[in-house]
Structure formats: structure tokens, C-alpha cells
């Protein structure tokens, strides 16, 4: 999640490519394409995603596409305001803390019903949290949120009481889907139950999941009894596209109304198309280089095949000093990004941190060479860097086969590091999760979506997030375990004073920067486009100038209003625009996010 990710980010990591199709009498909908049936004039909103659903169980789901579904299908205690992301009521209408900050009391709304007609109550919330507290498999996705819970009770249907072991700053940002007790108490093994066999799935969010086929589609219908009001489309379909170009082509033909994760070439071409609006907004994601610090588990065992040279911070800093972030922003993202510095994107201005001049690792090939020389990696007669054992300094980097940014940056790194005398093999795979979890990598392209509360994306770098044993899956992003970072994490998580907490979070980013385990290369913009002749209106987040896909809430799809007419469009006038666009649409988890959005044994936001 990936947010935790133990609960929630994460990965949580720029949502993936998405597309929306409005079905009409003249243009077949995605549903019609799936089942061969006519939609009978229904307004169908189809979001094309290039990320596979990992699980429809809120207790297991880590990937962005999956957690997006759960934000639509279930209520959380609180939501995020669409204008500035401050906490607003969700299933809870109000909340208060005791003077000692150890007891939180939430008032549960009276007008929330499960889609099977039963009333949603505080007992459902208490059961959800208690299950996570007592069953480690139920804590896979969001366990970090409840790790500090001492006791959770529901003294009456409208009151939820959470007692803490110590103060916890995330109590108004618990990104945990609340599930119906009367349904989920029948589940046996939570590690194996993916919630994908019986439909419709009972929920209390704005949508109800009605069908699912692996790597094909997820279908949802409006929840007519949703307390905030029902969505305006007759059906929402998340349709899987492995080929992003196909989604862009569908946009041109009028079959798809919305596409996210556009490459610069696609965005440029679409700006000249009729009835298409390109939205280029500051993103909530970061794109980074992650090094393998030596994969290990809580029981002290090491595993994987990470290069031992990367255990030396001087080697890590040398590689980063030989990486030109400005060129990456200018040439790869073509200006649709901001040069990376701290761990949290500038969109979250209160938490945004940047190194001072003396601390900053700037692009400096000469300095990089000096660091390697001092670390004992000298050039041989052929110009290659070799260690004292005579072995060449050659690395591997995990790359998403479907992400053109990974591939393009990989080529730059081969050039820059090659000039330094360092070899690099770019391993572009359809599935990077398996080698990542096994520790079988040297470096990897990494990325997460950051939530308004940064706790989750910080928690995934703590020692507590490591897997219990080499055979288990932890909440860790990259096997980082640093005592000082952990100390700061514990302090910020218990700090209720906003200004003091901000200071601690910035100190954590400084520590993460100095250890050089990760190098944030860029903060990509959310570059997306939609057909104005099919979508009359839709809400971005932030409302003033924000993104549509991958929001901290359900505002975009819940608010989307069909344009007048039958939802069809003329594909002939704009087809030529797609010619020449050869770059694939960025992955839905985008920019490396889904790499780390995988199941974990302890569970942020996977967004």
C-alpha cells in the first residue's frame, strides 16, 4: 500500500495509465467488448489501467489500482478534502482525543448502509481493526496503522473508541477500508482470501464491485444509497491494457474518454486534437533510484544477490554524483516533472525538504570518480573500475518493461556510469516484484504516491517493516534499516504538534538522503487527457489544479458527469493525431510504483 504502507502511498506509488470510455449507441463500450452484449444505452465510464489487480481483499491489496478500487467500494473513517486534503468526515462524522492523547473517540454516521441493505455501524469498524490486530495476515496491507493500538471497542452502534499504547499522529488519516463484519467474519485464511469469487461485493462506498476477471476488467455500479449521493454514470469499468498505445488510440477514436500517464510525445500530440483536454498538474509521486542495502529479515538473516559494493555509502554516493537529474527532467520527462531533491514531493509544501548547498549531491562526474578511487575501485588498463579482488564493478538495475521512462533513464545511466568505468545491465521485466522481494537486484527504479499524511512512505524504510524471515514478505520498500531513521520515525509518529512533526519529518528526509540508499530523481507531473465531448465535468484534486487519477479519495469518478448525447463520438477527425506516437503510456502504478506495491506480512498507502 504501498501508504503501509503499512497501510497506505502505498507505492504506493502517479497512478498508472488510465482511460475512460463512455458507452453509447454508436460506439460499443468496453463492457460490450468484454461480454459481447450491447449496453442498451447505459453510460459506462471505463478506466483503462495497465497495472494488474493484486487482490480485491482490502487486507491484502497493495497496488494502486487495487487500493483505488477499495476507495470506491468502502468508506474509511475519514476522507481528504478535495481542495486542500485536510481530514473531512467519512464513515465517522466527528472525532476527539482524550487529554492524554491516548484515547480517540469517533462518532459513526447513521446514514451509511452496506450495499446489501444492512446498517454500517461502529461494530464493523471495531471488528476490522481488531482483526488486523489479532491476525497478522489481515495486517498485510495496513498493519502499520494498528500496530500501536491497545484496544478497540464499539460501546454502541454510533461510537468507536480506540485506545493507544502511545500517541499516534495518524488518527485522522487512517487509510483503512472498513469492511462489513457480517460478511468478513466468515472468512478463514486471510492470507489466501482475495475476495474475487462472489459478486456483488458488499461495500458502503460510492460504487459496488459487480464483476472481475484477472488482467481483463473490474466492473462497478453506482451505490444508489451512498450517503453523499450516487455517482452519475450507470457503470464504471476498470479495463486492463498492457499496451498503453492502445489506450491512446482508443481515446482518439472516442472509445476511451480519459487517459493518464501520458508520455511527453502523446501529450503534445493530443493538445491539437479536437474535443480533448490535456491536464498537466503537479504530481503526488516521486521517481527514484533505489539501491539494495543488503536484503535482510528481522531474524538477522541476509539473502538475495545484491552487489556487496553497494554496502559502501561512498559507492552509492558516487553513482548518484554521476547521475544528471536535470537531464532526466529535460530529456526524458521533457519538462513534465520537477528535479528531485527530498523524499516528499513539493506538492506537499509543508513537508517538502531540500538539502542545503553543502549537503546536496550534485551532478559531478569528477567527484564521483574521486569517491570510487577513495573506496578502492581503481580503473584498470581498459578503463573499467575493479575492486581489490580484481572483479569489475558491474551492476544490474530492475526496470519495468512497460515503462518507457525506466528504459530511457536506463540508457542514460549506462552512458554516464560507463564513462565512470562502471558497467550497468538494465533488466527490463514484466514482473519486477519477484526479484525485488527475493533481494535479487543491485539497483531498481522505484516510486511511490505520497499521501497528505506522509507516515506510510516513511514507515516502509523502518527496521520494523522488514520481513520476519527470508521466506516472508514484509512491508519494507527496499530493506532499509537505519537506527537513527527509526528513532526519528518513532518521534514523528507520536508528535501531535504539527510544526514539530514537520521538523521531524524533514529531519528524516535529511537522514535518508545522507545514507544514499535512495536518490530521488524527479517528481513527475500528472499528465492526463480526457474527451470533453464525453465528460462534461470532473473534479481534480486539489480542486484548483490537481490530478484526476490516483487521488486521495474518490472525488474524480464519483463526481464525473456525462456530456449530453449518447456518449459516442466521431473517431475519423482525430485519428491522425495518434500517428507517430510510439512511446507507451506510463504504467498505472507509474514510474516504478508498483514495484513496491506488493503483499507484505506487516502492513500505507499503496497509492
In short:
The protein is 25% helix and 20% strand.
How would you describe what is shown here?
By secondary structure, the chain is of the alpha+beta class. It is 25% helix and 20% strand. The strands form 7 sheets. A 6-stranded mixed beta sheet has the order 14-20-13-19-17-18. A 4-stranded mixed beta sheet has the order 1-10-9-8. Mean pLDDT is 86; it is low at 1-38 and 568-607.
**CATH architecture term of the largest domain:** 3-Layer(aba) Sandwich
Question: What is the fold-level CATH name, i.e. the topology of the largest domain?
Answer: D-Maltodextrin-Binding Protein, domain 2
Q: How confident overall, as mean pLDDT? A: 86
Give the amount of beta strand, in percent: 15-25%
Radius of gyration: 24 Å
The biggest sheet, with number of strands, parallel, antiparallel or mixed sense and barrel status, is: 6 strands, mixed
DSSP helix fraction: 10-25%
Q: If strands are numbered along the chain, what order do they take across the biggest sheet?
A: 14-20-13-19-17-18
Number of strands: 23
The dominant shape is globular
The first-level CATH class name of the largest domain: Alpha Beta
CATH superfamily of the largest domain: Periplasmic binding protein-like II
pLDDT below 50 for ≥5 consecutive residues: which ranges? 1-38, 568-607
Integer tally of domains: 2
- Quickly count the helices: 18
User: What gap, in angstroms, lies between the N and C termini?
Assistant: 6 Å
Structure classification: alpha+beta
Family: Belongs to the bacterial solute-binding protein 5 family.
GO molecular function: peptide transmembrane transporter activity
Organism: Streptomyces lunaelactis
Signal peptide: 1-32
Amino acid at each position: 500500500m504501498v501508504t503501509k504502507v503499512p497501510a497506505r502511498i502505498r507505492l504506493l506509488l502517479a497512478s498508472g495509465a488510465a482511460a475512460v470510455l463512455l458507452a453509447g449507441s454508436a460506439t460499443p463500450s468496453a463492457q460490450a467488448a468484454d461480454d459481447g452484449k450491447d449496453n442498451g444505452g447505459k453510460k459506462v465510464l471505463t478506466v483503462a489501467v495497465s497495472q494488474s489487480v493484486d487482490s480485491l481483499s482490502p487486507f491484502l491489496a497493495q497496488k494502486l489500482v487495487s487500493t483505488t478500487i477499495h476507495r470506491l467500494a468502502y468508506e474509511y473513517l475519514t476522507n481528504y478534502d478535495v481542495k486542500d486534503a485536510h481530514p473531512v468526515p467519512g464513515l465517522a462524522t466527528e472525532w476527539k482525543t482524550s487529554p492524554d492523547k491516548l484515547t480517540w473517540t469517533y462518532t459513526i454516521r447513521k446514514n451509511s448502509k452496506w450495499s446489501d441493505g444492512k446498517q454500517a455501524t461502529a461494530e464493523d469498524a471495531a471488528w476490522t481493526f481488531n482483526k488486523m490486530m489479532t491476525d497478522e495476515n489481515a495486517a498485510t496491507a495496513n498493519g502499520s496503522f494498528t500496530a500501536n493500538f491497545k484496544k478497540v471497542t464499539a460501546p454502541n452502534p454510533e461510537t468507536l473508541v480506540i485506545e493507544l499504547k502511545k500517541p499516534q499522529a495518524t488518527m485522522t488519516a487512517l487509510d483503512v477500508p472498513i469492511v462489513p463484519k457480517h460478511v468478513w467474519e466468515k472468512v478463514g485464511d486471510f492470507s489466501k482470501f482475495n475476495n474475487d469469487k462472489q459478486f456483488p461485493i458488499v461495500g458502503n462506498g460510492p460504487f459496488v464491485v459487480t464483476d472481475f476477471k484477472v488482467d481483463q476488467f473490474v466492473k462497478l455500479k453506482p451505490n444508489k444509497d451512498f450517503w453523499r449521493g450516487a455517482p452519475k454514470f450507470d457503470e464504471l469499468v476498470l479495463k486492463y491494457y498492457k499496451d498503453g498505445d492502445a489506450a491512446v488510440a482508443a481515446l482518439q477514436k472516442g472509445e476511451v474518454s480519459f487517459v493518464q500517464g501520458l508520455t511527453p510525445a502523446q501529450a503534445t500530440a493530443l493538445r491539437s486534437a479536437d474535443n480533448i483536454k490535456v491536464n498537466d498538474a503537479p504530481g503526488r509521486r516521486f521517481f527514484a533510484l533505489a539501491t539494495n542495502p543488503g536484503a535482510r529479515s528481522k531474524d538477522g538473516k541476509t539473502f538475495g544477490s545484491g552487489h556487496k559494493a553497494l554496502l559502501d555509502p561512498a559507492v552509492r554516493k558516487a553513482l548518484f554524483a554521476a547521475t544528471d537529474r536535470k537531464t532526466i527532467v529535460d530529456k526524458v520527462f521533457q519538462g513534465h516533472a520537477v528535479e528531485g531533491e527530498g523524499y516528499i514531493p513539493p506538492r506537499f509544501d509543508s513537508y517538502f525538504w531540500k538539502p542545503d548547498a553543502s549537503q546536496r549531491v550534485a551532478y559531478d562526474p569528477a567527484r564521483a570518480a574521486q569517491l570510487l578511487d577513495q573506496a578502492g575501485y581503481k580503473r584498470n588498463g581498459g578503463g573499467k573500475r575493479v575492486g581489490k579482488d580484481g572483479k569489475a564493478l558491474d551492476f544490474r538495475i530492475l526496470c519495468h518493461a512497460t515503462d518507457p521512462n525506466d528504459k530511457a533513464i536506463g540508457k542514460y545511466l549506462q552512458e554516464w556510469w560507463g564513462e565512470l568505468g562502471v558497467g550497468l545491465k538494465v533488466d527490463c521485466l514484466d514482473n519486477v516484484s519477484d526479484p525485488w522481494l527475493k533481494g535479487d537486484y543491485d539497483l531498481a527504479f522505484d516510486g511511490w504516491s505520497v499521501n497528505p499524511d506522509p507516515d506510510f512512505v516513511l514507515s516502509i524504510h523502518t527496521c520494523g517493516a522488514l520481513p520476519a524471515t527470508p521466506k516472508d514478505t514484509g512491508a519494507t520498500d527496499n530493506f532499509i534499516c537505519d537506527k537513527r531513521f527509526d528513532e526519528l520515525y518513532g518521534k514523528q509518529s507520536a508528535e501531535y504538534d504539527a510544526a514539530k512533526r514537520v521538523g521531524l519529518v524533514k529531519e528524516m528526509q535529511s537522514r535518508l538522503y545522507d545514507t544514499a540508499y535512495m536518490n530521488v530523481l524527479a517528481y513527475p507531473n500528472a499528465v492526463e487527457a480526457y474527451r470533453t465531448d464525453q465528460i462534461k465535468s470532473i473534479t481534480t484534486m486539489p480542486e484548483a489544479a490537481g490530478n484526476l487519477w490516483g487521488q486521495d479519495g474518490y472525488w474524480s469518478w464519483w463526481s464525473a458527469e456525462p456530456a449530453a448525447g449518447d456518449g459516442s463520438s466521431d473517431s475519423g477527425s482525430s485519428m491522425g493525431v495518434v500517428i507517430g506516437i510510439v512511446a507507451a503510456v506510463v504504467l498505472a502504478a507509474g514510474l516504478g510504483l508498483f514495484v513496491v506495491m506488493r503483499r507484505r506480512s506487516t502492513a500505507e498507502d499503496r497509492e
